[in-house]
Specification:
With about 450 residues, the chain is of the alpha/beta class. It has helices at about 5-15, 45-55, 70-75, 80-85, 100-105, 155-170, 230, 240-275, 310, 340-345, 360-365, 435-450; strands spanning about 20-25, 55-60, 60, 110-115, 130, 140-145, 150, 175-180, 285-290, 315-320, 330, 335, 375-380, 395-400, 400-405, 415. It has 2 domains: about 20-350, Alkaline Phosphatase, subunit A (3-Layer(aba) Sandwich); about 390-454, Arylsulfatase, C-terminal domain (2-Layer Sandwich), CATH 3.30.1120.10. The structure holds calcium ion (CA).
């Protein structure tokens, strides 16, 4: 008898709640401010919003290194980049490393990974996987699975959803399952699907208040100056420069980005409909998140990487009617390294000794432990890559302030008051010695705490 069947037997005898299925839907680069449940001023996402209405919305969920491959590794391992070895886009996940999928599989869960993987080495700990090679493409993509490579006709987001529903339909219904459904969208170069290619065509998307902010540090993520012809699918009108170029490019890229989001929203709706129609609603924890946030013209930028709020914040919505009250909002600081311990906790497995994150299962129930963290540590490692020129940096974010130290560029430090200045427009570093000392002490404490795996 497997561990899980034994547990199910005992659970029945002791009247404990049954082991839940876990559906983890993750998109790529979907900022929370492009989700209407998070108050988006630029689009509507009715299906993702269903999760907020029927479950919980996390308002302070952050990634520990705001870039694709490292965030995925942090989610799977429950560890910071410097521990799991995936610091930058060029690193691969060690196939021997313990992950949440491996743990759940060993416990008797049926496990599947469908969509964008982007960790170089083949997925481990999954009974079934079907992934995009590398970044993959939006139209007629190739997928790789245990039997080889195959190209499919269609739009990537729709195909990933089809494969997800196919797997759900064909699974062994006697076992609980852990399903990762990872979209490529809305990652650059923002190619919309046929259904939404004309969405917003006659509209002007509202601009963020700091779209025309001058961009420092030599960053190559400026809307207009650094968006390419491939990104925009056209050349800028001749003679367009400066703010006029930024204004023009913003409308082009943001519309394509939001069109890609709309297909992801449809996908979430299809998965929710499947769960609801197949008596899986009550015993399934379903999560929607993104590997990090994204700049939607904020600070004049696109892309992510920086510790600014728009990039640091991850959307996180979860529904599990047995434990999570509908329509709740949680503002505790939660991290991508917490996801793995949280799923293990829901599965009744307890944490893994090497994981650095904490289970936030109780927080989702509205019962935040009194010792819950009041600050988080961030570290971006991919110093000065040729395409984006973002310096390496690290920092601490509390519920009210953020202190960041940058490598090789000026100013070395940035400090923001997040209550008074939520858009992070005024660097207060050098103005309040007492506050700086306090935040530096906390930063050092966190660096020591996470230096080694437990
Ligand atoms: Ca990403």
């Amino acid at each position: 008898m497997s561990l899980l069947s034994r547990r199910a037997l005992f659970a029945g005898m002791l009247q404990q709640p049954p082991t839940p299925n876990i559906v983890f839907i993750m998109s790529d680069d979907h900022a929370s401010h492009a989700i209407s449940a998070y108050g988006s001023k630029i689009n509507r996402t009715p299906n993702i919003d269903r999760l907020a209405k029927e479950g919980v919305r996390l308002d302070n969920c952050f990634c520990t290194n705001s870039i694709c491959t490292p965030s995925r590794a942090a989610i799977l391992t429950g560890q910071y980049s410097h521990i799991n070895g995936v610091n930058t886009l060029n690193d691969s996940l060690d196939t021997k490393r313990m992950t949440v999928a491996r743990r759940l599989q060993s416990f008797g869960y049926q496990t599947a990974m469908i969509g964008k993987w982007h960790l170089v080495t083949e997925p481990q700990g999954f009974d079934h996987w079907q992934i995009l090679p590398g970044q993959g493409v939006y139209n007629d993509p190739v997928f790789v699975d245990q039997s080889g490579r195959k190209q499919y006709k269609g739009y990537c987001t729709d195909l990933i959803t089809d494969f997800t529903l196919d797997w759900l339909g064909a699974r062994d219904k006697a076992k609980p399952f852990f399903l990762m459904c990872h979209h490529k969208a809305p990652h650059r170069p923002w190619d919309p699907g046929p259904k939404y290619k004309d969405l917003f065509a006659d509209q002007t998307i509202p601009e963020p208040s700091n779209l025309y902010q001058p961009v420092g540090r030599g960053l190559k993520m400026r809307v207009g100056e650094d968006t390419t012809e491939r990104d925009l699918k056209m050349k800028p009108p001749p003679g367009l420069t400066g703010d006029a170029l930024r204004k023009w490019a913003y409308q082009i890229y943001i519309k394509d980005y939001l069109r890609c989001v709309q297909s992801v929203d449809d996908s979430v709706g299809r998965v929710l409909d499947y769960l609801d129609a197949n008596q899986l609603r009550d015993n399934t924890l379903i999560v929607y998140t993104s590997d990090q946030g994204f700049f939607l013209g904020d600070h004049g930028l696109f892309d992510k990487r920086l510790m600014f709020e728009e990039s640091l914040r991850m959307p996180f919505l979860a529904r599990y009617p047995r434990e999570i009250k509908a329509g709740t909002v949680n503002t505790d600081i939660s991290l991508n390294i917490d996801f793995a311990p949280t799923f293990l906790d829901f599965a009744g497995m307890g944490g893994d000794g090497a994981m650095q994150g904490e289970s936030f299962r109780q927080n989702l129930q509205g019962r935040t432990p009194p010792t819950w963290r009041q600050s988080m540590y961030y570290r971006y490692w991919m110093h000065d890559d040729p395409d984006h020129h973002v310096p390496g940096h690290y920092g601490v974010r509390t519920k009210t302030h953020k202190l960041v130290r940058f490598q090789s560029t000026e100013p070395e430090w940035e400090l923001y008051d997040l209550k008074r200045d939520p858009r992070e427009m005024t660097n207060l570093y050098g103005k309040d010695a007492e506050l700086e000392k306090k935040l530096k002490t906390e930063l050092t404490r966190l660096q020591h705490k996470f230096l080694d795996a437990p």
